[in-house]
Amino acid sequence: AQTVTQSQPEMSVQEAETVTLSCTYDTSESDYYLFWYKQPPSRQMILVIRQEAYKQQNATENRFSVNFQKAAKSFSLKISDSQLGDAAMYFCAWGGSGNTPLVFGKGTRLSVIA
Amino acid sequence: SAVISQKPSRDICQRGTSLTIQCQVDSQVTMMFWYRQQPGQSLTLIATANQGSEATYESGFVIDKFPISRPNLTFSTLTVSNMSPEDSSIYLCSVARAVNTEAFFGQGTRLTVV
Questions:
Q1: What is the pLDDT along chain B (114 residues), one digit of tens a residue?
Q2: CA distance B16 to B82
Q3: Which residue, of A5, A47, B57, B106, has the fewest CB within 10 Å?
């Protein structure tokens, strides 16, 4: 079975600074996908970024980027120029090939300090 | 993307009663997933709702407690039966539009059992 571990229950960052959220996973599959989701107080799960395991290049979406280390099974999220609206729970998730449900980590609560 | 309408957004229910949560998707999807998110926790998969067959339940969740219907490819319901305060959680439906793509989520149902 796949597992996703987020070792930082809480993080904080000053506005305009950079923060990195950690995620490690365990899988025996070779074809999979990794995701970071954001859940603000509204409860809506919002996709932040995705990474295909077969791609060596790290995914980037505006201020959000990942550091994907496949051999180490690590998938960290870097948020640059942090904004107050970035404050939320962030969940790392693993998805396998085929139409299977995602496996989520326990989440990291990010606070942004003005 | 997929637009998912989940109802109700919140409810307060008496113990011993049942609540049915509805999930409507703007297009046909093969599989729909139901998650539970207890306060401050991650998402736990309850079951996969299959069209035309019984739902597939995860360990710790049973059909008598969480019956699921999937009458067509755009709609599903989850019922929380014989509720107790321990059932107080956020319940989310989720779909994936295609294989190996990100999951989309409804806005969640915040259930409080008193």
A1: 778 999 999 999 999 999 999 999 999 888 899 999 998 889 999 999 988 788 999 999 999 999 999 999 999 999 999 999 999 999 999 997 666 677 899 999 999 999
A2: 4
A3: A5
